[in-house]
Amino acid sequence: MIDGAFFREIQSNCWDAQTRLTECDACGVHVQVLSTVPVMFSYWARASHAHDLAQFLNDHLAGVIADPRCRGRFSGLGTVPLQDTGLAVRELERCVNELALPGVQIGTNVNGRNLSDPSLFPFFEAAADLGAAVFVHPWDMLGKERMAKYWMPWLVGMPAETALAICAVIFGGVLERLPSLRIAFAHGGGSFPFTLGRIEHGFRERPDLCAVDNPGHPRAYLDRIYLDSLVHDPHALRFLVGLMGAERIALGSDYPFPLGERCPGELIESLPDLTLQQRQRLLAGTALEFLGSRGPRPPTVVSS
How far apart are CA 21 and CA 71, in angstroms? Predict the structure, then answer.
């Protein structure tokens, strides 16, 4: 429920770890990275209240991961109250240093502030210093007032929102200033990979508009970001691998929601032209690299 209105009916796989393990086993998933659903970011709330909620959610997440019944099958990304950068940094430090989480998940904007906003830079700086992974998921999509029908916010708004977030960290100089930052974007980077030609053409033709905060060419940062593989189309995934390389693409599932892949890894396995090394990177290796030393140990089997 949101503000007393029905939003979505969810099943027990949203909150029950044993149900998740059963469904993971059915699809051959060895390790799943847990995170809160984006509607729980609560950036709209009073900062102290959002901080309290983030602590509750992160404590619960860490408890599920540590539960002996889960047998090391889960890792996790916490959440932070980004409407207050100081509190966000404090909770990020707690997630990494006390809860042993490999990083956090954040939204593509914070109450309309893009990720290039100077007020958010100390958070990214802290993430880089801590070696924390940052996973960016679209939420509060731009233009939603024109997308009331046909599920358009999820079908059109989310890809555009993610492309905007990637452009923000590139053009805003976040990646240039923080070369050690590990940052990943959901849903194959949204529409960004497929509009990169337009983006770089605009950068070349109008540097007076595009290069005002960072002179670096957009394509130069492709090896500085990670994307997930959730693009729903074999041609799109093949294009993504050609553009980014398998070492920058991690298995994404969007589990357990309707726009997710019913059996994670099926799209990857459907591409016969992938080499064994590419397949291993897509199914496990890239995710393990993104999560870093605090992430799960590599599984003994890497195919799904």
Answer: 10
